[in-house]
Amino acid sequence: MATLVDPNFRARLAALGDKYAAGIPATLQAINAALSLCRNADADAAALEKLHALLHGVAGSAATFGYAAFGAEARRLEQELLPLLGKRPDELTGWAALAAQVERYLAWAARDPKAPVFEA
């Protein structure tokens, strides 16, 4: 049986990669906004869910476009957040430390999201 080959596959994948790269600043802004919302005194459980969802999105797509460390660190952070879902940030022990980790991730990603290794 012959395998179907899309002659434009590489070009379309490169275009998607360019689109992904162009969207990274907006993604970082969205994560930062969600983190800020979680730090508000009146933050509810939905704030953590939003932060988790954004990190989950990066974790699931970044490596596809050559951003392995960017995605891997997002995966680690979203896994840290997973057991906290359904709670208010101000009720959580260790929330400040986790929020600081997200902040370091954002600072690193703003410098070079395609860096091969996450360095806080």
TrEMBL record:
Q: Name one Pfam family in it.
A: Hpt
**Keyword annotations for this protein?**
Two-component regulatory system
Q: Give the source's domain of life in one word.
A: Bacteria
InterPro entries membership = HPT_dom_sf, Sig_transdc_His_kin_Hpt_dom
Q: Name one GO biological process term.
A: phosphorelay signal transduction system
Domain HPt: residue ranges: 24-107
Q: Does the keyword Transcription apply?
A: no
Q: Which GO terms describe its molecular function?
A: protein kinase activity
The cross-references to SUPFAM superfamilies, in alphabetical order and at most eight, read: Histidine-containing phosphotransfer domain, HPT domain
What protein does this entry describe?
Hpt domain-containing protein
Annotated organism of origin: Pseudoduganella aquatica
